[in-house]
Amino acid sequence: MTMYQTSQLTDRAYDAIRRNMRSLTTTGLILGVLTGLSACVQVSAPDKPIVINLNINIKQEVVYRLDGDAKSLINEEADIF
Amino acid sequence: MFDTMKKNKALAVIGGLVLTAVVAVPVMAQRDPAYEAARSSGLIGEKPDGYLGYVTSPSPAIKALVEDINIKRKAAYTRKAQETNSTVEQFAFTSGCNLILRTVPGEKYQTPAGTWNTRDSSAPVRDSRCP
Known about the structure:
Number of domains of chain B: 2
Number of helices of chain B: 4
Oligomer: heterodimer
Order of helices and strands of chain A: HH
Mean pLDDT of chain B: 87
Mean pLDDT of chain A: 76
Number of strands of chain B: 4
Radius of gyration of chain A: 35 Å
Distance between the termini of chain B: 63 Å
Strand content of chain B: 5-15%
Number of helices of chain A: 2
Distance between the termini of chain A: 105 Å
Structural class of chain A: mainly alpha
Order of helices and strands of chain B: HHEEHHEE
């Protein structure tokens, strides 16, 4: 009786360890795949100089939004346009 | 008797309307003749930034005229920029797009590359951000 109980406990412990091992293996595999994928991304320095456009503060969407107001101003103050 | 009065009344109303129309037209501000002449002769032209520029080196009179108009333009752009929550440069640039489009054949305008073109019947060369 005592022997049986011990064996049962051992089996349970063994099962738990196996489950843990399996999840560890899965995590390891996923990590491995991710590391493998990221290793494929290659970054190379551009051969042309980087040009910063100073007119970036005037975006096309802003120009489209202001177009109606600009047109009405030109009509309102026709003497200076 | 009454008929005549009625007719007179109707005539008076029509006369009033005609008078209003005649008086209302000159109220709309027009370009100064010297400014109009400088534009059509190609001495000055419209720039993409919304201001006037000199195509050739200006005489003192032309210089004074352009500076005066550009100051007034900047004041108008500043007021409108505040109303529309934009910057003066953004509003001036949008106006520049429209002003170049409104030039008539023979007038000068500046391309984004900086050269002065004479407007012809074809569409003007403008910045790619223009609507």
